[in-house]
Recover the amino acids of this structure.
């Protein structure tokens, strides 16, 4: 999402360049200007103003990335991860994602967290995964917030803490992430815990169910059978409030 948006914005600006401006851009790139190198790499990747040339795109992205240009680092990482133009190389993808992540790029932080969590291109390291998910989560990345919630719930890479799990699931749920909404329902629905709150559980199951989450549909029906009439009415009212506020899933997250 970040990469596509960035490409579209930059190429709109680039498409207005005349031939002489393109020559000036190439000259700037050859003289070592990182932003010009990045834009030229994008132009070659997309075939905008120049013939499409993946090798040239990688060449200029690499030049810019080595100077610390975050979008170039990110695009280069994606190319190596996907095997686009260059051979697939998860270790190089991890290297460039981490370079961008260390400069605060939220999507790179999430991706390097995912790679540490799954041992892709790096040695599997749950603590490192949690570290990077937290960096992205604190910047509002819903999927990182969800993954951080999973880590706290499972105690993988961090001490088990259901309160923290609820905190991060809720951050993601309030952005419309359906599985986070479902997980809130399950944690509030656990009997005999400090978090037990069947009204909250029903409300979150309802929000997820209304967006097509089948486990939430089943859990909602089962939970309703154990609620009193007063509790059910309260839960349904809360569910309406949550649906209005958080009921639009962001499929791009």
């Amino acid at each position: 999402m970040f990469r596509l948006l960035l490409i579209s914005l930059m190429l709109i600006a680039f498409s207005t360049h005349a031939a002489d401006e393109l020559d000036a851009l190439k000259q700037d790139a050859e003289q070592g200007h990182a932003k010009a190198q990045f834009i030229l790499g994008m132009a070659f990747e997309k075939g905008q103003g120049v013939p499409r040339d993946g090798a040239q795109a990688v060449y200029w992205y690499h030049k810019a990335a080595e100077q610390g240009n975050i979008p170039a680092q990110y695009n280069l990482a994606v190319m190596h991860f996907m095997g686009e133009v260059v051979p697939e190389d998860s270790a190089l993808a991890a290297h460039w994602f981490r370079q961008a992540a260390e400069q605060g790029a939220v999507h790179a932080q999430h991706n390097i967290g995912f790679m540490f969590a799954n041992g892709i291109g790096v040695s599997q390291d749950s603590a490192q995964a949690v570290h990077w998910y937290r960096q992205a989560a604190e910047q509002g990345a819903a999927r990182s917030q969800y993954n951080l919630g999973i880590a706290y719930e499972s105690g993988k890479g961090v001490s088990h803490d259901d309160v923290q799990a609820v905190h991060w699931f809720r951050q993601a749920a309030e952005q419309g992430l359906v599985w986070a909404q479902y997980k809130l329902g399950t944690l509030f629905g656990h009997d005999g815990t400090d978090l037990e709150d069947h009204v909250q559980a029903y409300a979150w199951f309802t929000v997820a169910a209304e967006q097509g989450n089948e486990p939430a549909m089943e859990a909602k029906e089962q939970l309703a059978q154990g609620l009193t009439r007063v509790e059910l009415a309260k839960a349904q009212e809360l569910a309406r409030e949550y649906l209005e506020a958080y009921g639009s899933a962001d499929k791009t997250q």
Q: What stands out?
A: The chain has a mean pLDDT of 92. The chain is about 70% helix and 0% strand.
